C-alpha cells in the first residue's frame, strides 16, 4: 500500500467514478484502476461497486474513507510545513456550499492565497450537505442552520433572514415590509423538501397560525428566481442570497421570526488539518 493508491481511492470516492478521479488527479484512468486493484488486494476486500451511473463504496470502502481522508489532509499539511511555513502549495479540498452569494467572496480570497490548491465544490441544500460531510464525501461545508448540530465543529459566520421575493410589477414592490397575514391567498413558489429556506418560512408561518401551500416546487434557488421574475408566483429567499437581479426584490415579514445563521461546519478530526484549517481561517476573516 502506498500514498498514490490512497489518493486514487479518495478521488474515486469523492468524484463518484474512475474517469472523473483520473481527470482530477491528472493521471490516466488505467493508472487509477491499477492503484485501486492493488489497494483492494492489500486489504483483501472490494472497496467499490460499479453502478449504472458510476461507482458506490462497499461497506469496507465506507469504513476506510474517513481514515484515508484524514491521511490525505495530514500529508498535505506536513508538505506545507516543510515547503514554506504553512503556505499550501498543492493539495485538494472538497467543499459543500448551499449559499453561493455567501461563499464566493471566501473562495475568491482563498484561491488567491492558495492558488495551487485544487477545489472540488458541491452545491446542495443544507441537510444533504451535512450528510455528505458525515460520509466524508466533503471536508467542510457552509450551510444555513437554526442551531449548530451536535457532533460537528460549527462556527457562525453571519445571520440571514427569510424575505418574500416579489417581481417588479407586483403591488408589494415598493413596500418596506409585510405582515404575515397578508401572505394568505398568494401564489407561492418553494424550494424542495429539505431546503432550510423553506423550513424557516414554514416554521415562521406556523407560529403565526398560517399554512402556505406552494403552487410550484422547484429544485434550485435560481429556478425559483426565474419563476418569480416570469410572474408565476412569489418566492422566498434568504436576505444575503437574493443577488442583484433588477427584476426582483426581497421584502421582509415584520411579525414572523424567520432567521438563521450561516455556519462553517467540519468534523472534529478534520478541523486542524491542512486545507480545512486554512479555509476556516479565510472564512473567519471574511466576516470578521
Write a concise keyword list for the protein shown above.
alpha/beta; Arc Repressor Mutant, subunit A; nine-stranded mixed beta sheet; 9 helices
Describe the structure.
By secondary structure, this protein is of the alpha/beta class. Among the domains are: 1-57, Arc Repressor Mutant, subunit A (Orthogonal Bundle); 160-259, 3-Layer(aba) Sandwich (D-Maltodextrin-Binding Protein, domain 2), CATH 3.40.190.10. The protein contains nine helices and eleven strands. The strands form two sheets. Strands 3, 4, 5, 6, 7, 8, 9, 10 and 11 form a nine-stranded mixed beta sheet that branches. Strands 1-2 form a two-stranded antiparallel ribbon. Helix 1 packs across helix 3 (29-43). The two termini are 44 Å apart.
Summarize the helix and strand pattern as letters: HHHEEHEHEHEEEHEHEEEH
What Rg do the Cα atoms give? 22 Å
Range of helix content: 40-55%
Terminal residue distance: 44 Å
Determine the structural class based on helices, strands and strand pairing. alpha/beta
Can you name the CATH architecture of one domain? 3-Layer(aba) Sandwich
Give the name of the CATH superfamily of one domain: Periplasmic binding protein-like II
Strand content: 15-25%
Q: State the major sheet.
A: 9 strands, mixed
User: What ranges have pLDDT less than 50 throughout 5 or more consecutive residues?
Assistant: none
- How many β-strand stretches? 11
Q: Provide mean pLDDT, rounded.
A: 88
Looking at CATH, which topology of one domain would you report? Answer: D-Maltodextrin-Binding Protein, domain 2
